[in-house]
Each structure stands twice: as C-alpha cells, then as structure tokens.
Amino acid sequence: MEVSKYAAYVQRKAYLFHRVFDQSTTQRQLFAESIVPIVSKALQGYNCTVFAYGQTGTGKTFTLEGDMGNPSRAGIIPRCIHHLFQQIDVAPPGVRCCPGWWSGVGCVAHSPCCMC
Questions:
Q1: Which tops the pLDDT comparison, 67 or 18?
Q2: In this structure, is residue 94 part of a structural domain?
Q3: Which of 4, 36, 63, 111 has its CA 20 to 30 A from that of 27?
Q4: 34 with 17: CB under 8 angstroms?
C-alpha cells in the first residue's frame, strides 16, 4: 500500500509526555521520579499500569528487570516489590494489604490496601 495516496486522510496527532529520560538516567532516578507516585496511587486503590514500549534492543527489559545481581542496578519490578513491602511494614495496625481479587479470601474491600 502506498501511504502517500492516503496522506489527505491522515490526521496529525500530538502526544504529551510528562517526562523523557535519556540514557544517563539511573534506575534509581527513574523509579523515584516516575514509578513511586504510581505505586502510591495503586496503594490508594487506583488501577495503575507501567507500560514499556519501544524498538527492539532499546532497554525495556533492563528497565523493568535491571541487573538482578546488583541491587544498585535493580529495575522497576524488584524496586516496586521492595517498596510495597516497605509500605506494608509501616502501615498502621489493622491495615492488611491484599490484591482486590482476593476478596473471597477475607478481604472484602476493592482497594489493594484495605481494612480487613
């Protein structure tokens, strides 16, 4: 299919980026600036997604997983798990964190962190 034939029918689209990180960004910086606020919203009961998109070989897997043998280079996933357990440790007594889909197993609220 020749794209130029359909150029009159194609609309221009503008995309808004909250932040763009370059190759000098550390895993710690990325997590602190972009992911911690998302995890905080998830703990408040919001549905949240972190989506890694890009060309093959651009570092999506490394950004998500990191270097599992080097804690300073841990990716988003291990940092999220660590952060979640830290938040559970400091939660007030009586607050239990559980996924909303566990509602049939003792947690009746729809929030990931709920009074059970």
A1: 67
A2: yes
A3: 111
A4: no
| Average confidence score pLDDT of the chain | 78
CA dihedral 99, 104, 107, 113 (to 10 degrees): 20
Exposure letters 82-91 (e unless 16+ CB within 10 A, then b): ebbeeeeeee
Q: By residue range, what is the domain housing residue 67?
A: 20-115
CA 88 to chain CA centroid, Å, is 18
- Asked if residue 57 is part of any domain, the answer here is yes
Instruction: Calculate the CA dihedral of residues 84, 19, 74, 53 and round it to 10 degrees.
Output: 100
Tokens of 69: 């043998």
How confident is the model at residue 21, as a pLDDT?
Answer: 86
Query: What is the model's pLDDT at position 8?
Result: 66
Here the CATH number for the domain that contains residue 63 is: 3.40.850.10
Q: Report the predicted TM-score, pTM, of the whole model to 2 decimal places.
A: 0.67
CB 116 within 8 A of CB 96: yes
Assess whether pLDDT exceeds 60 at residue 46. Answer: yes
